[in-house]
Amino acid sequence: MKWLSSKWLAVYAVVYMIFLYAPVILLPLFAFNTSTIIAFPLSGFTTEWFVGLWYTDTLHIALGNSMFVGVTTALLSTLLGAFAARASARFAFPGKTGIVGLIMLPLVLPEIIIAVALLVMLNQLGMPLSLWTVVGGHVLICTPFAIAILSSSYRGLDRELEEASFDLGESRWGTFRRVTLPLVLPGVISSLLITFTISLDEFIIAFFLTGTDVTLPVYIWSQLRFPAKLPSVMALGTILLLVSVVLLIIAEALRRRSAARQGVDTTLAGL
Amino acid sequence: MKDTHTKPMIVIDQVVKKFGSFTALHGISAEIREGEFFSLLGPSGCGKTTLLRVIAGFEPPTKGKVAIGGKDMSGIPANSRPTNMVFQSYAIFPHLNVEENVGYGLKTRKMSKADIARDVAEVLKLVDMESYGKRKAHELSGGQRQRVALARALVMRPEVILLDEPLSALDKKLRDQMQVELRSLQRSIGITFILVTHDQEEALIMSDRIAVMFDGRIEQLDTPEGLYRRPVNRRVASFIGVMNFLPAKVLGVTDQHVKLDIAALGQIDVPRHDIDPAFDIEAVDTIGVRPEMFTLLADADDTAQMKVQGEVVDSEYYGDMTYYSVRLAGHDTPVTISMRNTAGRSVVPPGSQVTVGWGADSIVVFKE
């Protein structure tokens, strides 16, 4: 009986993995296929779709826009996240649970609702749509992630460590530089990478809030109207997938290293 | 013990500490002598850690002041005081190795690398950690972390080392060993140590003097022996070791003695030489006797001053000692009696009728 249940559990796990990753594996598969029609059987191997990306100027502009939005979002949301994480880890204040809950709410709100609401508000305020409005929307959805990551860093940072530094003759600034910063730095970098990745891949908010300057996902969406462009979208998708996965792996590795240093739980349960 | 013990190193003068509406310290005054091993002993929440943090400079006192080495410390922050702390969590910097941890404070003094390395090596040798210099905190055991935390404080050559429950995270055996080590280290280097602990046994073993604290006040400040033999009130008496309390009535007072009528023990003249002259002797309503001051008498043993009959209710065997619960004739609440398990003496089974010997010298008097 036990054997049976463990066997079915294994089958379930495999099926689940196929469901999760098979479509993703199709992406690079068709990106290297010679035919412009996305269907089996594969007709031959080519890298022309990747080479073609190199000569597409509109793509480069979209990439530049995405980099600007991604980097700005990562910096702002990590900064805001650091303040909130320190406050929630260190201080008790009235309404703390409610306030933290409200900050974390965008994590579960449907993005399309956030996007529409922001668009309505921006129109009411008479603000023109630009990459900055996209940044605003992205900071809203990225900050909860930054808080979750940085909270575990700050929770692991024992208050007595900072007191010990001060007691040993170090100044407040010296304590921050020699104790606080080194201990939360892996968390900060992890937060920057994850928020950057989220912003880079985000479509709905970017689609609603961007003006004439499109970000990469919005560019991809616009290309999908032309069947002939599909393989190059596949190629672009493959690159994006690779970059995202690498960034997330680095971020998680850093987060675990920082947690291990402080001797706290290294699983994702802390999030 | 050195004779430098007489000079005050720390003077605590009427220190009050309030957190909002809660008063943690109610006007504490005490003098801690140079080279002394001084303990702040009390249950959790008695204010002992707060007092230590006031001395360290982490908490400014609401009222009163602290002087260290004759210098008023008001307004002087923790990083400029001649004190260093061993934290309860040890607070070893997790991103630095043992040497870097110990050298942390020296680096703020702009010392040369060679000087820092020399001092660090010297102090690591002192705490028996010289072969662990490159280890990180998570590679150390609890006892080793404790040594590193101590080394990190010692290397600063402070005038006072403050220890906040430094042994509470260790297991019993290691704790016993570290108590002895800490004590002998303190004696050999002669620095003033102030230890915060809730463990009365630890305080008795290690300290030259102990301040027993309850509810933000010092109830008694005395040597370990003084606290054990002459506790000033019932609270101190029951916190330090075990004390049997028996109701008593004052029958008369002379210059030499006080005549008491004690439940189960009867009428007795208690000598006054151990009683504080300021104590209001007429108000005595309770006496205390330590468990080892009672003796279960064998038939032949006749040397005890006084005798009373009793019945063994229960016993706890500790190997070297046996603790008996004995109901004395004429008193319902059993008293605790401890007996050393010497050769040829067997444990007395419950239900046995026994003769209990005791002496008038062993009696401590209390009033409500």
TrEMBL record, chain A:
Q: SUPFAM superfamilies attached here?
A: MetI-like
* InterPro entries assigned to the protein according to its UniProt record, in alphabetical order: Bact_Polyamine_Transport (IPR051789), MetI-like (IPR000515), MetI-like_sf (IPR035906)
Q: Which residues form the ABC transmembrane type-1 domain?
A: 63-251
Q: Name one Pfam family in it.
A: BPD_transp_1
Query: Does the keyword section mention Cell membrane?
Result: yes
* Protein localization: Cell membrane
- Regions crossing the membrane: 9-31, 37-55, 67-87, 99-122, 129-150, 179-196, 203-221, 233-251
Going by the UniProt record, its keywords in alphabetical order are: Cell membrane, Membrane, Transmembrane, Transmembrane helix, Transport
Per the record, membrane topology reads:
Multi-pass membrane protein
Q: Which domain of life is it from?
A: Bacteria
The entry assigns this protein to a family as follows: Belongs to the binding-protein-dependent transport system permease family. CysTW subfamily.
Q: What is this protein called?
A: ABC transporter permease
Q: Tell me which species this is from.
A: Pseudosulfitobacter koreensis
From TrEMBL, chain B:
Quote the SUPFAM superfamilies the UniProt record gives: MOP-like, P-loop containing nucleoside triphosphate hydrolases
Gene3D superfamilies linked: 2.40.50.100, Nucleic acid-binding proteins, P-loop containing nucleotide triphosphate hydrolases
User: What molecular function does GO assign, one term?
Assistant: ATP binding
* Reactions accelerated catalytically: ATP + H2O + polyamine-[polyamine-binding protein]Side 1 = ADP + phosphate + polyamineSide 2 + [polyamine-binding protein]Side 1
Write out the entry's keywords from A to Z: ATP-binding, Cell membrane, Membrane, Nucleotide-binding, Translocase, Transport
**What InterPro entries would the database entry show?**
AAA+_ATPase (IPR003593), ABC_SmlMolc_Importer (IPR050093), ABC_transporter-like_ATP-bd (IPR003439), ABC_transporter-like_CS (IPR017871), Mo/tungstate-bd_C_term_dom (IPR008995), NA-bd_OB-fold (IPR012340), P-loop_NTPase (IPR027417), PotA-like (IPR005893)
Keyword Transmembrane helix in record: no
Residues forming the ABC transporter domain are 10-240
Superkingdom is: Bacteria
E.C. numbers: 7.6.2.11
Q: What Pfam families has UniProt attached to this entry?
A: ABC_tran, TOBE_2
What does the sequence similarity comment in the record state about its family? Belongs to the ABC transporter superfamily. Spermidine/putrescine importer (TC 3.A.1.11.1) family.
Function comment = Part of the ABC transporter complex PotABCD involved in spermidine/putrescine import. Responsible for energy coupling to the transport system.
Q: How does it assemble?
A: The complex is composed of two ATP-binding proteins (PotA), two transmembrane proteins (PotB and PotC) and a solute-binding protein (PotD).
Name-wise, this protein is Spermidine/putrescine import ATP-binding protein PotA
Q: Which organism is it from?
A: Pseudosulfitobacter koreensis
Q: Which gene encodes it?
A: potA
